[in-house]
Each structure stands twice: as structure tokens, then as C-alpha cells.
Amino acid sequence: MKRKINIFGTTGSIGQSTLEVFRGNRDAYDFIAFSAYDNVDQLINDCIEFKPQYANIGNEKHFAKLKNVLSDTGIILSYGRDSLVDLACKKVDWSMSAIIGFSGVEISLLCAEHSKILALANKEALVCAGKLLLSICKKNNTKLIPVDSEHSAIFQCLEGERRKDLKSITLTASGGPFRDWSLQRMQSATLEEALKHPNWSMGARITIDSASMFNKSLELIEAMHLFELDFSDVEVVIHPQSIIHSMVNFKDGSTLAQLSLPDMRGPIGYSLNYPKRLNIDMENIDITKIGSLEFYEPDKKKFRALEIVEKVGRNLDLGIIFNAAKEIALDRFISGEISFLDMVDLVEKTLAESSLVNKIKVAPRNVSDMLEIDELSRVIAKKIKF
Ligand code: MG
User: Fold this and answer.
1) In angstroms, what is the span from residue 301 Cα to ligand 1's centroid?
2) Cut 0.85: pTM above it
């Protein structure tokens, strides 16, 4: 029997790397659902190549085009959120949840309920609803395999180890385009400058999140949920070469690290083939060519996202507020309304103001709680003035 596969966020950077992993061995799988929000042309190409049973476009205005081009393919086409939610309820063997941001959270939760394996690239699912997600996985016996490169590294290092032997983890960060910039220079950082990531090629939003280190702060919370760690057990180090993707420190003084070239096909292939390692057409690192690897502590005065995340690290229920504020901050930076460094102030202020709102004080127990807390946090974040 062929394994049934869903890929949500097909046309994004992770979605495309996922297709790259399947390319060449397409016929060994049954593709069930593909989805995209706006990129209808790429979705059409992917549907023609991989022939999924269903394809969903988020933005209704592109539906006519999708229908026109794919009408005689037999693919069942739909648009909008409700149909996407239905697709995430299909029983499959493996789902890639790669829709970025809060809009991917509900889809991740549904995949956790209906897929045998959840390959999770949507880190917000853990940040915003970590407890809920893990309990759904447990209840449904779903294997959650992280696809974020750092978390895949940790997951790989922990394979065959006893959880109680783990002492702490070291998350590596490239440092992004502003690694060597002064704080003063960062004050006038432009959108264009924030979009120049030195090592990874990713979508715009996550690239800016990498420049501000909000991405790393989300990853820190992601790691706490996934590996059941306290805030004090997770450290972040800058590693400009992005060769070591993270490290696990054990109680006997040993540290294991996972090394590879920065290419998401590695973590995706691992989550697809787990626990086996199958052949992926990817170069191994040549350590003699790399020569030296550097590591140093991040400057938290420059990258305050790493400082303010401590509040969330001490109370994981705040993750959903932190993320909502971060997404609004990003929107307001992209639109030119606030400066690069204003983003972290906005998130800090939203966390402070939301603590005064009773409805936000409760931990989300289900999807509707989650949507409400997210929405209320966004209202606060939008109103903060600069
Ligand atoms: Mg990452």
C-alpha cells in the first residue's frame, strides 16, 4: 500500500523542499491534499506534476484560474478556510504542516488528530498551543516529528537515548544579516536589509523573524514543549556557519550535535523516512573545506527578542499572545509603519497590557479559546502607538 501524503503550505519554501524530496520517487506515494494561499501558479504546476486528489487555494480570487487550468485533471478543487479544514481531517499516513504563522496552528492540530505522522514545520502550533497539540498527539497515537532544522537536530541526537539522561540543549542561530551590526545601525534597518539572510533561503516573514531573532525566541519555546525542558535548560548560541544545527548536552558530560549543510530536505527527509535514513541526493559536509566553526553568545541588548521571551519561557501559556503580537509587529514593520527595533517594544508592551485583560488570562483549552485569545492580543498589538 502506498503511503498517503498531505502537504499543507505546498507552495512555500518548506512545501517546495518537501516536493523536492518526493521528486524522482513520486509514484511510490499517494498524494492526498495540497494547499496554497495566494500562489496559484505554483500550485497548478505542483498539481500537474504530483496529481494530488485534492487541492485548495486559500484566496478565493484565484479559484477561477485553478478551476480553468485543472478542470479535466480529476483533482477535486476548493477554496477558502472551511475546505482547507476539511482536508486536514483526511486520514493519511504523513502530513507536512508547513503553513506559516498562526493560520497554520489549527491545521497542525487537525493533522495531529488525523495523520499517523505529523511532520511539523509550523512552529507556531507548539508556541501557541503546545500543550493542546501534544495531548492530541498522545490521544491519537500520532508521531510528531519536528521539521525545524534545530529541532530535527535535537530529535536526531536524542534517538536511542533515555530522556532522563538529557541535561540541556544548545540551539544554534546563524545571527542573521544583522549579526555584526551595531545597535545604533539596527535602529535604521530597512525591510530590504532584513530580507538578506546569509545562509538559509526562506520566505519573507521567517527571514525577517530571523533578522530580529524572534524566530529563535519562538524556537526556544518550541524546544521547551517538544523536549519537556525548563527555560533554564535551553541556551542559544550564535553559530554563523549554520553547520551544527543544534546540540544536546547529557548528564555524563557528553554533547551530541547534528551537522549538515543548511538544506531543509535533510529534516524533511528524516521526518518522512523515520526511523530509517533513506537515500536523499544531498552532499555531506566536507569538514576539511569548512575548516573552522565559530560560536559565541548572542548580544541580548541587540536581539531583545531573546530577552523578552523569558516571560513566555516562565509561563508557556503566554506563547499565543507573544506570537500574535509578533505577527502584528511584523505586519507593521513590513508596511513601513514602525521601525525594525520597534517590533520588540510592541511585543513587550502587548505582553504587559494583555496581562490586564481577564479573558486573555486563561490558558487555551481548545481551538475556539485559542482563536479568541489570539484575536484579543492582536487588537491590543494593533493599538500600541510609537
Ligand atoms: Mg529553525
Assistant:
1) 22
2) yes
